[in-house]
Amino acid sequence: MGQVNVLDHPLIQHKLTYIRDYRTGTKAFRELVDEVATLMAFEITRNLPLEEIEVETPVCTAKAYQLAGKKLGIIPILRAGLGMVDGMLNLIPAAKVGHVGLYRDPETLKPVEYYCKLPSDIQERELIVVDPMLATGGSASAALTLLKQKGAVNMKLMCLIAAPEGVEQIKEDHPDVDIYLGALDEKLNDHGYIVPGLGDAGDRLFGTK
Ligand code: PRP
Ligand code: URA
């Protein structure tokens, strides 16, 4: 069964507060999402495997460590997931980035796919699927299903804020996928928005609406 991890580092919680605040404008919102994505990437990569190597320092030969194991891939769910990519690449610049385009139909709340472009070797990569919001879970679940159909075998899901309903949906549909959250909120409202949440992540990131 996939694990649910709330990354409650004080810096993540502090920045999330300003991300939630309706008075935070587009520029600051974008910068804060970027920063939180970096902090979450730091936490999510904590258990990456290492291998021992030798390094020549100016003084002597020393035992040291470098990353080993699978290469990484970052998969933002368009469009709001884009806001988390650069922050993650700050820490893992060699990761390849694939894009899955999905929007949530405002009437049915069902995800509609419109774009998919992935690294050719996703089956060999450890993928981190990113989207600020996990609400009903429909979009993330559809993205994970699509990625599995394209060959992905090793995935994590990383979101800033989730509703319990979305977490349950992912656990049911994708029990093999661990979930990493900045915060687990109270519920969804009648329009499928996370309460208290942050509003519409895509609109706040890109200044639309
Ligand atoms: C938002 C968000 C998620 C989805 C979450 O995207 O970024 O992708 O809704 O809702 P769900 O869990 O109920 O599927 P939206 O559809 O607003 O598209 P956008 O990123 O293009 O704004
Ligand atoms: N999508 C968002 O951007 N915000 C929500 O609260 C739910 C879905």
Secondary structure: elements and pairs:
Blueprint: E1 4-6, H1 10-20, H2 26-44, E2 50-56, E3 61-67, E4 71-78, H3 85-89, E5 96-97, E6 99-104, E7 111-117, E8 125-130, E9 133-134, H4 138-149, E10 155-162, H5 164-173, E11 178-184, E12 187-188, E13 194-195, H6 201-206
Parallel strand pairs: 1-11, 4-5, 4-6, 4-8, 8-10, 9-10, 10-11
Antiparallel strand pairs: 2-3, 6-7, 12-13
Helix pairs in contact: 1-2
The chain binds 1-O-pyrophosphono-5-O-phosphono-alpha-D-ribofuranose (PRP) and uracil.
Descriptive account of the structure:
This protein is an alpha/beta fold. The strands form three sheets. Strands 1, 4, 5, 6, 7, 8, 9, 10 and 11 form a nine-stranded mixed β-sheet that branches. Strands 2-3 form a two-stranded antiparallel sheet. A hairpin with a 6-residue loop joins strand 6 and strand 7. Helix 1 packs antiparallel against helix 2. The site of 1-O-pyrophosphono-5-O-phosphono-alpha-D-ribofuranose has 23 residues, from strand 4, strand 6, strand 9, helix 4 and helix 6.
Please give the radius of gyration in angstroms: 18 Å
How far the N terminus sits from the C terminus, by CA atoms, comes to 39 Å
Number of strands: 13
> What is the succession of H and E elements?
EHHEEEHEEEEEHEHEEEH
The overall pLDDT, averaged over residues, is 96
Spans of at least 5 consecutive residues with low confidence: none
**Which kinds of small molecule does this entry bind, naming each only once?**
1-O-pyrophosphono-5-O-phosphono-alpha-D-ribofuranose, uracil
The portion of residues forming beta strands comes to: 25-35%
Helix content: 25-40%
Shape: globular
Query: What structural class do the secondary elements suggest?
Result: alpha/beta
Task: Please tally the helical runs, counting DSSP H or I stretches of 4 or more residues.
Answer: 6
Sheet having the most strands: 9 strands, mixed
